[in-house]
Write a structure and sequence with these properties.
about 200 residues, mainly alpha, Arc Repressor Mutant, subunit A, Tetracycline Repressor, domain 2, 2 domains
Length: about 200
């Protein structure tokens, strides 16, 4: 007997993947729900059952991408642990997600559309911004005396920027991902830079 829940999850995933490809290829304005249903190998009725419109589908893709980062929100500073180890774990939480081709594909599509539509950009930014997680750990480490951080928000942006500069932004142009060994070097370098700038001497 076919599990209806699993079947629905599978169709949902197929539609998301098809929509990402369609939006990338034709842009949001020119994307066709007919082509999305064909790409996903589902009927139009099934497509509209899952997603009422292109706008709804786009927002679902943003939520889908945001969901990849949900685990990071639970990361907290622990006072009796070495701060460098904690920064490495935080950097790897970001890095592992950026090793996924589906994350890069979704990001490429979302960024291309948000450049054309400021309203979509504002909605997406609010859901995808992870600065608060980085800033919170840096601020707590400062309060505990393990780091010397004056502006945690700015430092959090710097930390993310060090990772994305090599592991995210260049990948948007060719749709590839960095290798795991290369990500390890990027993560180590980012943490070394943060410790050099904000570590207690």
């Amino acid at each position: 007997m076919i599990d209806q829940h699993s079947s629905n999850d599978c169709k949902h995933s197929q539609i998301i993947d098809a929509a990402v490809a369609e939006f990338q290829e034709n842009g949001f304005a020119n994307a066709s729900m007919d082509r999305i249903s064909a790409r996903a190998s589902v009927s139009k009725r099934t497509l509209y059952k899952h997603f009422e419109s292109k706008e709804n589908l786009f927002r679902s893709i943003v939520l889908e991408l945001a969901g990849r980062f949900e685990g990071m929100q639970d990361m907290r500073y622990v006072s009796d642990r070495d701060i460098r180890e904690q920064l490495l774990e935080l950097a790897w939480a970001e890095g592992r997600i950026l090793l996924r081709p589906d994350v890069i594909a979704m990001s490429r599509m979302i960024i291309s559309e948000t450049l054309r539509n400021p309203k979509l950009a504002e909605e997406a930014q609010g859901k995808l911004d992870k600065t608060a997680t980085f800033a919170r750990m840096l601020k707590d480490a400062d309060s505990d005396g393990q780091l010397d951080v004056v502006d945690a928000e700015a430092a959090g942006q710097e930390f993310i920027g060090l990772i994305k500069a090599k592991a995210f932004w260049p990948m948007l142009f060719n749709g590839s991902v960095v290798s795991e060994p290369e990500m390890a070097r990027i993560v180590e370098s980012a943490v070394d830079m943060m410790m050099s700038r904000y570590g207690k001497t």
